[in-house]
């Protein structure tokens, strides 16, 4: 496949966002969907929680959204007409080039764009710097589309699996509320330590920003993967949630992982019940004891009052949820495999 190197300004028109005054914002759906930056970026499409009745810059459906303020280089599709703020640019790809290929190219190179960023208050990239970005792309439009279609099929499958997983999670939460709702609010009879062991993660000896041949185990932080290391700390069924920093994000693992020291590890034979409690029934703000940054102590989490079901209630709930949880983990494994394939394709063609 033959490639050529060309500047972004020759491939696409760049429209930098401009934020309207805050008095034009609303959350009732009046006007046009508005995005200031990447805060509500999803995996493929942004989630909208703000609207504006006045704006100057916009992205049309099917155009690429590109973050120009920290974190610089995040990419998303505009799936509808969207007003864009100062944190975003709309990339309007010219007809003779594949916008799908450009989207994945930006996905690949976006993580390196901080080196081009400028600014002391906000890390940012301006229109001139963005327009002069040099891109290596296939000469033939058909080859651009061919490569992009491979990746788009993978993304579509990942998105379908994610939606199924979200639906399964909603089913479990509905079961949880139907079976235990009144008891949770009216009959607390124990604490979290009655159904779970709670430990604090550890700081790894070695940390790598990217996965490699030596560092294959993800380091789990309070809300996301923080890097990779060469050893695992746990290789069983566990729940994690934030200790320092971000609170309220609850995650589950059944594979080898390293849990960082800013997270708690919870082990329970009633994991489905505990996961629903931690996800939907804990007031993390009330547990915060930090002054300079959010902090929850192990003692405070252990002693949160809860309803401890009878063995019969546990059995009824887990009989319904265990197959659903198993299916969720199978979907997660499948998505991990798809992401690995996608990563290899990006490395090969970009």
Description:
The protein is of the alpha+beta class and 350 residues long. The chain folds into 3 domains: 3-139, Alpha-Beta Complex (Adenine-n6-DNA-methyltransferase TaqI, Chain A, domain 2), CATH 3.90.220; 141-188 and 307-350, Orthogonal Bundle (Helix Hairpins), CATH 1.10.287; 190-306, Adenine-n6-DNA-methyltransferase TaqI, Chain A, domain 2 (Alpha-Beta Complex). It contains 8 helices and 20 strands. A hairpin with a 4-residue loop joins β14 and β15 (225-229).
Characteristic terms for this protein:
five-stranded mixed β-sheet; four-stranded antiparallel β-sheet; 3 domains; 350 residues; Helix Hairpins; globular; single chain; alpha+beta; Adenine-n6-DNA-methyltransferase TaqI, Chain A, domain 2; 20 strands
Spatial gap, N to C terminus: 12 Å
Percent of residues in helical segments? 25-40%
Run of helices and strands: EHEEEEEEEEEHHEHEEEEEEEEHHHEH
Mean pLDDT: 92
Question: Major sheet: order of its strands?
Answer: 3-5-4-9-6
- Give the total of beta strands: 20
Largest sheet: 5 strands, mixed
CATH second-level architecture of the largest domain: Alpha-Beta Complex
Beta content comes to 15-25%
CATH superfamily of the largest domain: DNA methylase specificity domains
Report the C-alpha radius of gyration, rounded. Answer: 23 Å
Tally of discrete structural domains: 3
Q: In a nutshell, what does this entry contain?
A:
With 350 residues, the chain is an alpha+beta fold. The chain has helices at 8-11, 99-109, 127-131, 141-186, 271-280, 284-287, 298-302, 311-349; strands at 3-7, 12-16, 25-26, 32-35, 51-52, 58-59, 64-67, 75-77, 82-84, 88-93, 134-138, 190-191, 197-200, 217-220, 225-229, 238-242, 250-253, 258-259, 263-267, 305-306.
């Amino acid at each position: 496949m033959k490639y050529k190197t060309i500047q972004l300004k020759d491939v696409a028109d760049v429209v930098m966002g401009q934020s309207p005054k805050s008095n034009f914002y609303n959350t009732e759906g009046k006007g046009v969907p508005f995005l200031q930056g990447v805060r509500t970026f999803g995996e493929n499409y942004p989630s909208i929680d703000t609207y504006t009745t006045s704006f100057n810059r916009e992205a049309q459906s099917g155009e690429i959204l590109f973050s120009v303020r920290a974190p610089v280089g995040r990419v998303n599709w505009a799936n509808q007409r969207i007003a864009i703020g100062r944190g975003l640019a709309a990339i309007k790809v010219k007809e003779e080039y594949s916008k799908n290929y450009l989207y994945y190219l930006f996905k690949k190179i976006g993580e390196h764009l901080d080196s081009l960023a400028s600014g002391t208050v906000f890390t940012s990239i301006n229109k001139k710097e963005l327009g002069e970005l040099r891109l290596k792309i296939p000469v033939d439009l058909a080859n651009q589309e061919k490569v992009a279609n491979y990746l788009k099929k993978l993304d579509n499958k990942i998105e379908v699996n994610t939606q199924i997983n979200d639906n399964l999670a909603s089913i479990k939460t509905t079961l949880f509320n139907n079976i235990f709702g009144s008891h949770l609010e009216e009959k607390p009879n124990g604490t979290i330590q009655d159904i779970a062991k709670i430990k604090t993660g550890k700081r790894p000896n070695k940390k790598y920003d990217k996965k490699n041949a030596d560092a294959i185990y993800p380091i789990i932080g309070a809300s996301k993967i923080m890097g990779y290391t060469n050893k695992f700390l746990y290789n069983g069924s566990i729940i994690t949630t934030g200790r320092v920093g971000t609170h309220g994000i609850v995650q589950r693992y059944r594979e080898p992982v390293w849990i960082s020291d800013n997270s708690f590890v919870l082990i329970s034979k009633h994991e489905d019940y505990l996961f629903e409690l931690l996800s939907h029934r804990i007031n993390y703000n009330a547990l915060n004891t930090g002054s300079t940054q959010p902090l929850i102590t192990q003692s405070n989490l252990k002693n949160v009052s809860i309803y401890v079901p009878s063995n019969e209630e546990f059995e009824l709930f887990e009989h319904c949820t265990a197959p659903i949880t198993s299916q969720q983990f199978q979907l997660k494994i499948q998505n991990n495999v798809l992401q690995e394939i996608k990563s290899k394709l990006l490395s090969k063609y970009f």
